[in-house]
Amino acid sequence: MSGRTALPVADARSLRRYVRDLARRHPRLLWTALGLHVGAALAGLAAPRLLGNLVQAVEEGTSLGHVDRVVLALAGFLVLQTVLTRYARLTSQVLGEQVLAELREDFVDHVLALPVGTVESAGSGDLLTRTSRDTDQLSWSVRWALPEWTIALITAVVTVIAAVSVGWWVLLPLVVGLPPLVIGLRWYLARAKAGYLRESASYSTINATLTETVEGARTVEALGLGRERVEAIDDDIRESYAAERYTLYLRTVFFPSMELSYLIPTVATLLLGGYLYSQGTVSLGEVTAATLYVQMLIDPVDRIVSILDELQLGAASLARLLGVAQVPDDRTATGRHPDGEQLDASDVRFSYTEGRDVLHGVDLHVGVGERIAMVGPSGAGKSTLGRLLAGIHPPRTGSVTVGGVGLTELPLDELRGHVALVTQEVHVFVGTLRENLALAAPPGAGEERLRDALDAVDALEWADALPEGLDTVVGSGGRALTAAQAQQVALARLVLADPHTLVLDEATSLIDPRAARHLERSLAAVLAGRTVIAIAHRLFSAHDADRVAVVEGGVIAELGTHDELVAAGGSYAALWESWNGGVTDDRADA
Ligand code: ADP
Hints:
One of its GO terms (cellular component) is plasma membrane. It holds the Pfam family ABC_tran. The chain has helices at about 10-25, 25-60, 65-110, 115-120, 125-165, 170-215, 215-220, 225-280, 285-325, 380-390, 410-415, 435-440, 445-455, 460-465, 485-495, 515-525, 540-545, 560-570, 570-580; strands at about 345-355, 355-365, 370-375, 395-400, 405, 420, 430, 475, 500-505, 530-535, 545-550, 555-560. The chain is α/β, with parallel strands linked by helices. Strands 6-9-10-3-11-12 form a six-stranded mixed β-sheet. A four-stranded antiparallel β-sheet has the order 2-1-4-5. Strands 7-8 form a two-stranded antiparallel ribbon. Strand 4 (about 395-400) and strand 5 form a beta hairpin. Adenosine-5'-diphosphate binds next to helix 10. Adenosine-5'-diphosphate binds near residues 352 and 380.
């Protein structure tokens, strides 16, 4: 969607800091895993040495017994390497899973702490992609790419050391292989990302054009657009073909150049070793060992190079996951506690998009226990004001306070004990009914509290009739609750949270009319003894209120009792007149 502000993405520095902190949380596991990997790599290095010595021994004349012993030693090191590798991988997996679990927990914490306004303006799509695709990508990287890459790196380093320990001359063939490797890699990496992005974008375009054509098939036919659509798809396919050809070209240059740079050192070691041997400087055994070591390097280096791509994707996902934590909080807990239950809004201005206020200086002082009805045309700002009065958004200027403390100065769980917003949107979480209620209950609330809350909203009867009572699993996948039951669960949560002030946003207007009567009783029970600000779409609830606030164009245009406003002859009087004239209801003549 246009005009959406995407959620932030963490930069490289905070990424590194996070990875460092994460590594520091499990020093023992980390070092054990690394140590085991090094051990396994070292055990793998014995073979070339032993083989080299064997070649040397054969040249100098040896016995069968010696050959047998060498072969036995080779087998021994192989077994050792296998055992060490097994435990190394096990430890890395355990470490990986722990890190992953912590990452997910951190992410969930950050998502839950996101200001509602940010989620709304960024759209839930971005957040969903991050929770699904990015966590998947990251899991893959942490579970597979990172350990493989670390193992390859350790193996490569240890192998280079072993190769050089045969003789300093081995450095020369190794260095010769470096330039083609580095140049090829840099050439490829500089082009690959854009190339592959273009390729996947071209697939999306083909998809979009095709779907559009199929969905608009009637229009296409009616307007005779067939040819143009075919041409459009042809263009898309041409582009996709070009994009694929390009990435194919990248690979046809990159892979051979890599193969070449892998082979160069091996060949060079053989040649240089052969020359030095002919000069009598090195022994045949040394040449054999060196060549085998250099050959052994190919595999880990190849893995280091090919996994690099995967790691980059993982890092990009991590950056997007960490970005969520960087959204500035719009609440700052100051530790002040409200003194009393008085709710006051003073000179409140608020805008969703910068520079376009939807509230223009609202003052509203709500008496304790008062019932206020908010009415006004659609789009006037009633819901917005309701959300500010419930502390969901901070005002741009001015203040909304309860007992003298700004609503956004209170931590969310404390705020909910003072003011709560009730909307038609109720959600039943997957879990037991008990868990659904306990969300809102003070910690340690017992069975009695939960049952009393259900009873208060007239829901105890059906709750007890569930197959497993309060322990019945409800929500998606569990037992489906009716819309009215879901509303009652939400109301019972309110009873448990026990706020002294409620803001109702069209709380009962979407309810199934057959259930409405019943629910209104439940709602009335919840409202009893609390301060209520109701955004009213049906005027009779305004009629019952202590005061009526008419919101028009982002300000409170009229404020007073029903009788006062009717007598004043303003817009409320006009509304009342038209509503009253059109409907015959026993309340109308009250
Ligand atoms: P009411 O409840 O009186 O119908 P609202 O408070 O919903 O009015 O809306 C007031 C104004 O704010 C409208 O112009 C509406 O388009 C705008 N608005 C409401 N919600 C958002 C939002 N999430 N983002 C941007 N603008 C919004």
